[in-house]
User: Which sequence fits this backbone?
């Protein structure tokens, strides 16, 4: 039985009087692909930010990889983000004047030290071996997002977070990106938590949870 | 016995040996410096006299040879490994054993694409780029050998005989059978290093040597000795008469009077007088040694008392207060060392070898240092080795990636070609 | 107050030394602290005792030898460290293992403390008041002990990443000892080192050129000889000294820089490999901090040596003239009191030549006339301190008893006649003696 990678109890996040996430109980087993759905303002991104160590909860318990994230100071949290988490956003956030290869190497640099051969290999794995020297502006949306995937997985995270990663892509590119994520998950055995509006995209996950006004209202598990 | 030989070889070929021996001599130098002013000369003399110290010094050239043999052996083994021979793991920076995958064709293609030359068969793959630093290293070690062998030979065998070579006199030899020194030519030179040149022309001695010309540099050999001109001077004949002395004194003196203005003195034999001479600087700026037109400034002393001063041209006479001083003959003279020392050749050779090693090393080290990796199947296992001369993080990355690829190919995953 | 100012550099150096000792031998704090305090106390007491029982040159000589010896040790360790980093089959130095042992934890702080204590005690002034005379060493001991505690608490606040290799540890300790000792001109080692280097270089270059048959300067282009001539000049002592002074710490830094990174080829996850490499690189960078500290301390020591903050009895030379017969006369009592035991300098000018000389009454009660120059060094002259004169160039101390005797760095004695009215000397002899001395110690050309 897979061990639990994320465990929350009474996880809450308030911004002043507004409670973005109401006490949430959630458990994610290692290696699972969890889709998070909900309307705008339902608390999806807040949950993602908390789990990814980008934000701190107001109350509750948040254990990632068996460790209480609240116990970490800022440096510890930064180390956690560096070594444990990979994030893919809807906007690619690639550095426009660096090549695809350099963008991936930049992530290596912030993690530890750059290694060109490894970065090249990662881009080849996402099907961009022929686009190493191209800058983001010279790549299609799907290619840019694949660079983001290479960048997100280069430091071997245990947790891959996606915030609408296919939101800006056409159907074909969306499928290509999601297939790629599925393949890589099979090889690298990381856990995916993906926030999306799109039911079709959510269906790629093993399980989907629905948030509404900061409350977990429903949960669906893929059958078969 | 074998063990003893191995230990001996280990010591003689150790890289720790040169710093230890040199450190010992440095300490000895410092120790001597506490007691003697001429420290280096004393150290050289002690080393020459005590065989144990000379033997210790001899360890340095010996170490150079042993290192050359050892490193050449390692180089050859690495060359053979490139062709698929057994790989000695200790010769590489990183060596590891993996469980064996299939062939190396995918890997070979990738490494070629990254600028590596490859050579492989079904069970082995070698990839490399750049040029080895080994030839430069070998030259350096040969230089070390020549330098210390030269110093050792020079220390224990050097013989120097200092002679005055005088124009119009026989070339000085132990047997007295040197040819006549026909001319000593001192002239301005246009070379990048020498400002003046010196030629000593010697007539046939009748010993089958023919006419000879000895130059300044490189020093010529004469009957096994280097002819090494040290100082210039004048050989002169003088005639002296003092009113308080009985008669005229005639004598010759060999005096190091060059450059003009430099003083040298000679005691006038049989009298209480001493003559201090120097060459006057000609007003036209010419060099009296080159032109041969000499004017001598002199001081005549009796004990510590200065009797008179004046000047007398070569071939002329000075007369005052009853004193007479004539210099009827003044010839060019070179104080010359005859140095029997073949260690010098080795030391010069060392200089050339070091220069060649550096010229070879610098561009290779900067632009094309050798990086190599080897993969070799051994039954169920795969041996992988990597080495980068002068370090190389990028190469290490490529090597690690190659290993990752082999691992992935084992599990059936393929990267895009 | 003056005492406090004078000892500040030594006390700062002592604090940093203890801090280093604590960092260099983690897990043995107690032993380090106790032996450091013990060593410092022994050093202070030992110096005071020896300086009472024997001439002060004895304890000073012991301290100089100890610091000099530690510098030699540092050189050997630096060379060994460089070899170890660059040569894979270089045998591990057994000595290095000593660093972690209990012997080292007791021995190193004890020895360091003894030398540091001795240096501190040598800086204590001689006071007329007997109460203060007793109080000053006690205050020094108290300060030494308190600073050990201060160093302990400072060390605990330092980041744990600040690691130190055994060689860097030694480099910093020795550099601090050199810094500490260079604050006293009597213990300074840089100046004598420069002097020895100058002499050694002259000897070596001369011998080398002669050995490999390079022609004399007469034949060589003056521009080329200009470069070679540097090796025969006075400045070579300073620059050569600088090279010898800084090289061991630089070698140790280089050794750390060249240490091979750990092999990570067996790890099949790139991120993990890079993490290990990054950690190793960061550890190396932190390890460079201590050699850098050593370099700063060495630079400070060389600076203190070059610009010593001490005052010597060094009167302005009085101009004297010779009689038509060439005799210089200096009256016993006149403008100066010749027999007051102090150095009296004179200046005699003849033609374009200037000669400096001095007259001094030695402790044996005899007058001596000497050139203000020695036969070895550049004629920078002498200053007088308690019981000795000091050569400004090489900082050699010459006891007053031996002034008037020739040899080494002693002032060159000048023949003179002592009469009832004063001292008479021959101007020509004086000029000749000066010319000979200065010619042989300032010729920068020729060499041979």
Assistant:
């Amino acid at each position: 039985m897979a061990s639990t990678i994320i465990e929350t109890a009474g996880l809450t996040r308030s911004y002043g009087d507004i409670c973005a996430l109401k006490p949430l109980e959630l458990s994610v087993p290692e290696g699972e692909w969890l889709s998070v759905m909900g309307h705008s303002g339902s608390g999806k991104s807040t949950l993602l930010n908390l789990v990814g160590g980008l934000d701190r909860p107001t109350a509750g318990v948040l254990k990632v990889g068996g460790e209480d994230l609240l116990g970490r100071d800022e440096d510890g949290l930064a180390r956690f983000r560096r070594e444990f988490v990979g994030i893919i956003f809807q906007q690619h956030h690639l550095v426009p004047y660096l090549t695809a290869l350099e963008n991936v190497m930049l992530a290596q640099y912030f993690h530890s030290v750059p290694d060109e051969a490894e970065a090249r290999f990662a881009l080849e794995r996402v099907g961009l071996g022929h686009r190493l020297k191209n800058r983001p502006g010279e790549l299609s949306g799907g290619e840019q997002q694949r660079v983001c995937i290479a960048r997100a997985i280069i430091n071997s995270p245990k947790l891959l977070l996606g915030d609408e990663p296919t939101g800006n892509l056409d159907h074909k590119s969306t499928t290509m990106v999601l297939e790629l994520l599925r393949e890589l998950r099979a090889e690298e055995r990381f856990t995916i938590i993906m926030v999306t509006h799109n039911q079709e995209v959510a269906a790629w996950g093993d399980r989907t949870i629905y948030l509404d006004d900061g409350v977990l209202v429903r949960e669906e598990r893929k059958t078969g | 016995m074998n063990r003893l030989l191995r230990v001996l070889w280990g010591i003689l070929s150790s890289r720790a040996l040169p710093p230890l021996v040199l450190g010992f001599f440095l300490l000895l130098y410092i120790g001597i410096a506490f007691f003697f002013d001429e420290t280096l000369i004393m150290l050289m003399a002690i080393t020459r006299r005590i065989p144990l110290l000379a033997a210790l010094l001899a360890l340095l050239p010996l170490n150079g040879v042993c290192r050359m043999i050892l490193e050449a052996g390692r180089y050859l083994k690495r060359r053979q490994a490139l062709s698929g021979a057994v790989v000695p793991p200790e010769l590489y920076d990183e060596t590891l054993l993996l469980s064996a995958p299939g062939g190396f064709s995918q890997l070979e293609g990738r490494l070629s694409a990254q600028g590596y030359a490859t050579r492989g068969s079904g069970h082995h793959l070698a990839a490399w780029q750049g040029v080895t630093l080994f030839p430069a290293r070998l030259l350096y070690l040969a230089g070390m050998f020549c330098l210390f062998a030269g110093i050792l030979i020079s220390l224990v065998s050097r013989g120097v005989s200092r002679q005055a070579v005088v124009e119009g006199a026989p070339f000085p030899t132990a047997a007295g059978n040197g040819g006549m020194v026909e001319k000593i030519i001192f002239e301005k030179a246009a070379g990048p290093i020498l400002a003046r040149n010196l030629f000593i022309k010697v007539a046939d001695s009748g010993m089958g040597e023919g006419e000879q010309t000895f130059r300044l540099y490189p020093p010529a050999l004469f009957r096994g000795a280097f002819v090494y001109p040290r100082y210039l001077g004048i050989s002169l004949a003088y005639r002296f008469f003092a009113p308080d002395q009985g008669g005229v004194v005639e004598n010759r003196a060999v005096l190091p009077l060059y450059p003009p203005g430099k003083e040298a003195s000679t005691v006038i034999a049989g009298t209480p007088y001493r003559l201090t001479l120097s060459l006057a600087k000609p007003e036209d700026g010419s060099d009296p040694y080159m032109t041969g037109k000499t004017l001598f400034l002199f001081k005549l002393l009796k004990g510590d008392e200065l009797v008179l001063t004046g000047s007398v041209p070569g071939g002329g006479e000075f007369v005052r207060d009853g004193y007479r001083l004539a210099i009827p003959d003044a010839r060019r003279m070179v104080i010359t060392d005859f140095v029997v020392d073949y260690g010098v050749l080795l030391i010069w050779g060392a200089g050339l070898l070091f220069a060649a090693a550096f010229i070879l090393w610098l561009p290779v080290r900067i632009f094309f240092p050798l990086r190599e990796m080897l993969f070799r199947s051994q039954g169920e296992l795969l041996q992988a080795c990597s080495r980068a001369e002068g370090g190389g993080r990028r190469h290490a990355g490529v090597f690690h990636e190659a290993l990752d690829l082999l691992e992935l190919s084992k599990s059936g995953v393929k990267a895009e070609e | 107050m003056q005492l406090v100012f004078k000892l500040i550099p030594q006390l700062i150096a002592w604090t940093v030394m203890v801090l280093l000792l604590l960092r260099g031998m983690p897990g043995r704090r107690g032993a380090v602290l106790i032996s450091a305090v013990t060593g410092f106390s022994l050093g202070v007491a030992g110096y005071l005792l020896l300086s009472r029982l024997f001439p002060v040159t004895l304890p000073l000589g012991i301290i100089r030898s100890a610091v000099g010896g530690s510098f030699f040790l540092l050189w050997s360790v630096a060379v060994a460290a460089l070899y170890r980093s660059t040569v894979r089959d270089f045998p591990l130095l057994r000595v290095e293992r000593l660093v972690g042992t209990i012997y080292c934890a007791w021995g190193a702080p004890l020895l360091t403390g003894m030398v540091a204590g001795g240096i501190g005690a040598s800086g204590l002034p001689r006071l007329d008041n007997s109460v203060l005379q007793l109080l000053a060493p006690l205050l020094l001991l108290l300060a030494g002990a308190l600073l050990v505690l201060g160093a302990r608490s400072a060390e605990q606040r330092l980041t744990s990443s600040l690691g130190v290799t055994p060689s860097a540890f030694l480099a910093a300790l020795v550099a601090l000892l050199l810094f500490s000792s260079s604050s006293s001109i009597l213990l300074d080692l840089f100046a004598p080192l420069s002097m020895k280097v100058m002499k050694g270089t002259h000897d070596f270059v001369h011998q080398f050129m002669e050995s490999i048959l390079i022609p004399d300067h007469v034949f060589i282009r003056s521009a080329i000889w200009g470069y070679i001539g540097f090796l025969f000049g006075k400045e070579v002592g300073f620059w050569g000294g600088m090279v010898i002074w800084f090289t061991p710490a630089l070698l140790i830094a280089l050794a750390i820089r060249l240490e091979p990174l750990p092999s990570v080829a067996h790890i099949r996850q790139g991120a993990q490999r890079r993490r290990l490499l990054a950690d190793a690189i960061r550890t190396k960078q932190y390890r460079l901090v201590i050699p850098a500290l050593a370099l700063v301390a060495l630079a400070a020591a060389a600076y203190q040596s070059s610009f010593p903050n001490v005052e010597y009895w060094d009167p302005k030379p009085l101009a004297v003239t010779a009689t038509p017969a060439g005799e210089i006369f200096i009256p016993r009592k006149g403008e100066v009191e010749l027999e007051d035991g102090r150095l009296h300098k004179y200046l005699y000018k003849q033609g374009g030549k200037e000669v400096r000389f001095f007259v001094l009454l030695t402790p044996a009660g005899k007058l001596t006339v000497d050139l203000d120059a020695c036969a070895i060094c550049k004629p920078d002259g002498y200053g007088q301190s308690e019981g000795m004169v000091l050569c400004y160039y090489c900082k050699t101390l010459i006891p007053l008893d031996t002034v008037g005797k020739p040899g080494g760095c002693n002032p060159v004695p000048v023949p003179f006649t002592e009469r009832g009215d004063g001292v008479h000397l021959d101007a020509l002899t004086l000029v000749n003696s000066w010319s000979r001395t200065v010619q042989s110690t300032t010729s920068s050309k020729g060499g041979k």
